[in-house]
Design brief:
It is built from 11 helices and 8 strands. Helix 2 packs antiparallel against helix 9, helix 9 runs antiparallel to helix 11 and helix 10 crosses helix 11.
């Protein structure tokens, strides 16, 4: 059985360390502070689906270090609110917003997306949730909250990076979920829950290839900077994370766990979703 290892707390606490910045650049090409399986070109494509304008307000769920949220605000000129359950991530994100003089445009707050969101109905023009849906065990309630806080006719983009699309052993599932709480679901479950929550599925795409590429680069870059990382992480955590990234790369390359992106929409006023 794989031992639970920390990816987020230590990463966010040491986010500005030079070695971690170097690893992000080697992993993603362009570093916007992401801690997921997305590259900037892919992120830009997802953003284009949301048709963002300067007057819009975006909710980023699982905002991490805040880098992607700041990137959205810069690119679209809109307001962004980021929420994350990790206090170290929110502290890092808040400092980054202050350092970039975007504190008036981008805000970050500690909030658990598994719980009712601390926002009014119909208060956001878009929701973004990249590679974190697997951490929400009651996914239907999460979707229902998104429907509540989205304005009519507006959209959400999310990725599920652990959709079961092939045979996976219990040891492989344990290793893939060694960094925290995970919910694994087969193809069809997200689609059903989206409909049950009263959202409309606009489109979905298989984006597993990005996860396979990024995880391979991440593992390789970490190995090249092993000595510096061990000083931050310790030998046990370093080895555990290397096993984790290797498992992600293997399972996505073999398409036994797939990464799917979904674009969903809250019906406009006066419209209903056909059953």
């Amino acid at each position: 059985m794989a031992k639970r290892i920390d990816l987020f707390d230590s990463t966010y606490s040491h986010f500005t360390k030079q070695v971690l910045e170097t690893i992000r650049k080697e992993t993603f090409g362009q570093d916007i502070g992401q801690n997921s399986w997305t590259t900037v070109d892919e992120y830009d494509r997802f953003l284009s689906w949301l048709d963002l304008r300067p007057e819009h307000h975006v909710l980023e769920v699982a905002s991490g270090s805040g880098g992607p949220g700041l990137y959205v605000a810069n690119r679209a000129g809109c307001r962004v609110t980021g929420i994350d359950a990790n206090e170290a991530g929110v502290a890092t994100a808040t400092q980054s917003a202050a350092d970039s003089n975007q504190a008036g445009q981008v805000t970050f707050t500690v909030a658990n997306a598994n719980s009712p969101l601390p926002f009014d109905d119909d208060s956001f023009d878009a929701v973004l949730c990249i590679d974190s849906m697997n951490h929400f065990p009651d996914r239907l309630k999460v979707f229902q909250q998104w429907r509540r806080i989205l304005r009519p006719g507006r959209r959400a983009v999310f990725t599920d990076p652990v959709v079961i699309t092939g045979p996976v052993t219990n040891d492989e599932l344990a290793l893939r979920s060694s960094i925290g709480l995970f919910l694994f679901a087969p193809i069809g479950v997200n689609e059903q829950l989206i409909e049950t929550a009263g959202l409309r599925l606009v489109k979905q795409e298989d984006v597993t290839a990005n996860a396979a590429t990024v995880s391979g680069h991440w593992h390789g870059s970490r190995e090249r900077h092993k000595d510096a990382l061990i000083k931050i992480e310790g030998e046990e955590r370093f080895a555990g994370l290397q096993q984790f990234f290797a498992a992600v790369h293997r399972l996505t390359t073999e398409k036994r766990l797939s990464r799917i992106v979904y674009l969903v929409e809250k019906p406009g006023l006066g419209t209903t979703i056909a059953s």
